[in-house]
UniProtKB/TrEMBL annotation:
<dbReference type="InterPro" id="IPR003593">
    <property type="entry name" value="AAA+_ATPase"/>
</dbReference>
<keyword id="KW-1278">Translocase</keyword>
<dbReference type="InterPro" id="IPR017871">
    <property type="entry name" value="ABC_transporter-like_CS"/>
</dbReference>
<protein>
    <submittedName>
        <fullName>ATP-binding cassette domain-containing protein</fullName>
    </submittedName>
</protein>
<dbReference type="InterPro" id="IPR045865">
    <property type="entry name" value="ACT-like_dom_sf"/>
</dbReference>
<dbReference type="InterPro" id="IPR050086">
    <property type="entry name" value="MetN_ABC_transporter-like"/>
</dbReference>
<keyword id="KW-0067">ATP-binding</keyword>
<feature type="domain" description="ABC transporter">
    <location>
        <begin position="2"/>
        <end position="241"/>
    </location>
</feature>
<dbReference type="InterPro" id="IPR027417">
    <property type="entry name" value="P-loop_NTPase"/>
</dbReference>
<dbReference type="InterPro" id="IPR041701">
    <property type="entry name" value="MetN_ABC"/>
</dbReference>
<keyword id="KW-0472">Membrane</keyword>
<keyword id="KW-1003">Cell membrane</keyword>
<dbReference type="Pfam" id="PF09383">
    <property type="entry name" value="NIL"/>
</dbReference>
<dbReference type="Pfam" id="PF00005">
    <property type="entry name" value="ABC_tran"/>
</dbReference>
<keyword id="KW-0813">Transport</keyword>
<keyword id="KW-0547">Nucleotide-binding</keyword>
<dbReference type="GO" id="GO:0005524">
    <property type="term" value="F:ATP binding"/>
</dbReference>
Length: 327
């Protein structure tokens, strides 16, 4: 659905060049929610704006639904942008227009007649749970309600792709949860492909099927969220489980064991102790809800070196657990 290859974007100011996006490759499959996670200044917003060519990249291609947007003349690009909706961090609503007027604005630009506009606006406000607020003005709305208006407006042109630019970072945790639930519901009901950028791990955990970690304009890892959790050395896995650095325990092998959803309840500690007659120490653990399921990571210490513990470690891997020797 979205294919990004070799994307590069730099800014030049006062004799300095700042590379915001540096050779990014990214693939978002149709119908999935894909999150790009990064800290402030990592290049997330520039990357997102390059997807709909609000920022034109210096190099690389952006293909959406089989069409290379970077090769289109301006007129055809405007037509294809109608299939890409965008929601903003600070809502970007027109204060002089009502809720209904804000949602209707892109339809007016597209030349949709008044009757059809009114019908579409009513449908969209019902869809986002604001059917009773059509005549209100943005100043009369809460932050969550404003973002719901922004989402309805982004859906006005019946897009196949929805871009989200830090859509929940200005909201409190409870409101954030409700907006993320709405986005996931729209993804499933409408078949929307959603590409979102965020600095909040909770967003990735709650609704993303796939994710990428962006640092200094470059992708350091990407893939299905569940696959990343079991990848040795995964930056995303470390951020989600947050077990910290392993302690220095001479004479032991410290192991991080990641338990996918189907094995989260297995008592592998008791199995190892019984089968190999070893004293298994539990040092730390975390269970997180990720991508509509649960995953866990347990840090254990086994007496002896990794070579001595070769058989127990092999036993864990044969059981389908992801095993990483931390020290």
């Amino acid at each position: 659905m979205i294919q990004i290859e070799g994307l590069r974007k730099a800014y030049h100011s006062r004799g300095r060049t700042v590379v915001a996006v540096d050779g990014v490759d990214l693939e978002v499959r149709e119908g999935e929610v894909y999150g790009v996670l990064g800290r402030s200044g990592a290049g997330k917003s520039t990357l997102l704006r390059c997807v709909n060519l609000l920022e034109r990249p210096d190099a690389g291609t952006v293909t959406v639904d089989g069409v290379d947007l970077t090769a289109l003349p301006e007129r055809r690009l405007r037509q294809h942008r109608q299939r890409i909706g965008m929601i903003h961090q600070h809502f970007a609503l027109l204060s002089s227009r009502t809720v209904a007027g804000n949602v209707a604005f892109p339809l007016e630009v597209m030349g949709v007649d008044r009757r059809e506009r009114a019908q579409r606006v009513a449908e969209l406000l019902d869809l986002v749970g604001l059917g009773d607020r059509a005549r209100a003005y943005p100043a009369q709305l809460s932050g969550g309600q404003k973002q719901r208006v922004g989402i309805a407006r982004a859906l006005a042109g019946r897009p196949t792709v929805l871009l989200s630019d830090e859509a929940t970072s200005a909201l409190d945790p409870e409101t954030t949860a409700s907006i993320l639930e709405l986005l996931r519901d729209l993804n499933r009901r409408l078949g929307l492909t959603i590409l979102l950028i965020t600095h909040e791990m909770e967003v990735v955990k709650r609704i993303c099927d796939s994710a990428a970690v962006l640092r200094e304009g470059r992708i350091v890892e990407s893939g299905r969220v569940r696959d990343l959790l079991t990848r040795p050395g995964s930056a995303l896995g470390q951020e989600i489980f947050r077990l910290g650095p392993p302690p220095d325990l001479p004479g032991t092998t410290i192991v991080d064991v990641t338990l996918p959803d189907d094995s989260a309840g297995r008592s592998f500690v008791a199995d190892l102790a019984r089968r190999y007659d070893v004293d298994v120490r539990i040092l730390a653990g975390s269970i997180e809800t990720v991508a509509d399921g649960q995953a866990g990571r347990l840090r254990i210490a086994l007496p002896g070196s990794a070579e001595v513990n070769e058989a127990p470690l092999r036993r864990l891997r044969e059981a389908g657990l992801a095993v990483e020797v931390a020290r």
